[in-house]
Amino acid sequence: MAKNLFFLILLFFCLLSEPCSFSKSGFLFFMNNKSVNILNKFIGDDNKSTNEITLLVTNNSNYDIKDFLIKVPIQNISKKYPDFRAEYCIVMEANQEIPSQVIDDDDDNKADYIVFAVTINKKEVIEYQFFQTSLINKERNYPKRTQAELSCKFGGRFEKRKDDSEKYEYVGGEFKNVNFLKVPPEHTDHSWYIRYEGPGWESDKVGYRFYLDWRNAIDIFGKCTNEMILHKVGLNDFESYHKMNNWGMDIFKVGNSLGIGSIAMWDNNKTVKISSADSTICYIKDNGVLYSSIETKFYGWKVENSKYDVVSKLSINAGSRITTHVVSVNNNNILLCTGFIRDTNADTIVIKTDKKWSCIASWGKQSLNDDNLGIAVFYMNKECLKITSDELNYIVVLKPNNGSTEYKFLAAWEKEPNGIKNKSEFIEFLQKELELLNNPCEIYIK
């Protein structure tokens, strides 16, 4: 009791002599190393240590960057600061707290990355501080700029359809969000069981979903707002989002195509999507303010006489249209592929570089709202075997590295806030994205 009282008195005098600041989350104080060392002696060994860590971020590209997500591996910080605890960390720029997020990438209940968004001019170097202390509240009130969700019905039942005795539909019940779903064998297209028929993910730029059934293709939600909207979509019926709403609409016709960025196998010169599997499990891994992700595991994907296990991870960053898709399969000898729908109303764009990343894209009046939409797939040159096409798709054939591959895709709708309006603007945008991929920001921990 006496020790605690003494500590409070000491803290009071430290605060009188040191600069203080306020934030949305409460009272934050910043002390020099001398004050920190004095306090640590009286706090005791059972309390978290306090560290101020400086990071230098360098923009190596030839473009000014606005709202670009920086992903810092915590293991790199721990090499210099072994006592670093990400859950007690805030990020500062010019003495102002900026939004950040901690990511557990491998589900071991330990933080793997800290992410934060930067605005930085070309070739510029900016200094950031990681301020860590047990005195900071772990809950932060940052604006939500990404979202991932999965919603299915509870309280009803599957019944055989009257018009098709081989298929079921879900009758009754109410939608509730879940973080995990093992897809029931009765579920198929238009069974009214999963809200908007699969998981969804979005940034403040664009939204996506994929059909968690035999179609297994990715679709696009065009947004007329920077607000998060997915939790409002498809609550009452499955047709409302195919019409223009105040938030936007489903702007893409997928049909039997690859949609945009869907995964498939390249088998006998044709695409084979994950239409049949023994079981499918979908997880919402991250639903954060700056970064969200979805992981889906397909067990027993049937392709001719063979079966494969596949893990798909889709992720999106705040301020970005890009989805990153990391796919792994338990076979090193197969070819995978991805791509997007081949629309006669759109012009094809190919940007080939001699660096790590290139892209194929299209632009034109290919949205369901009969207005301009640009779509693109970014692929790593070392994994791309060829670019080809069939009646429905433009196709990127990929050779996985040790059973794993990574590619990216995006959609840009002209009705977005400050949206891209024409083909030349879209090409310029793609060139900038490639420049950032091929010349990533450098991080130096002081």
What does this protein look like?
This protein folds into 2 domains: 49-134, Immunoglobulin-like, CATH 2.60.40.1180; 146-445, Beta-galactosidase, Chain A, domain 5. 11% of the residues lie in helices and 44% in strands. It is built from 4 helices and 33 strands. Strands 15-22-23-24-25-32-29-28-27 form a 9-stranded antiparallel beta sheet, covered by helices on one side. A 5-stranded antiparallel beta sheet has the order 6-5-9-3-33, with helices on one face. Strands 10-16-17-18-19 form a 5-stranded antiparallel beta sheet, with no helix packed on it. Helix 1 (2-17) runs antiparallel to helix 2. Mean pLDDT is 89; it is low at 1-50.
How many structural domains are formed by the residues? 2
Helix residue percentage = 10-25%
Q: Tell me how many strands there are.
A: 33
The span between the termini is 39 Å
Unreliable stretches (pLDDT < 50, length at least 5) are 1-50
List the helices and strands and how they pair.
Blueprint: H1 2-17, E1 20-23, E2 26-29, H2 33-43, E3 51-58, E4 65-73, H3 74-80, E5 89-93, E6 96-98, E7 100-103, E8 113-120, E9 125-132, E10 146-149, E11 151-154, E12 157-160, E13 168-171, E14 174-177, E15 180-182, E16 200-203, E17 207-210, E18 218-223, E19 248-250, E20 264-267, E21 270-273, E22 279-287, E23 291-303, E24 306-317, E25 323-329, E26 336-341, E27 346-351, E28 357-364, E29 373-380, E30 384-389, E31 393-398, E32 404-413, H4 423-438, E33 442-445
Antiparallel strand pairs: 1-2, 3-9, 3-33, 4-8, 5-6, 5-9, 7-8, 10-16, 11-14, 12-13, 15-22, 16-17, 17-18, 18-19, 20-21, 20-26, 22-23, 23-24, 24-25, 25-32, 26-31, 27-28, 28-29, 29-32, 30-31
Helix pairs in contact: 1-2
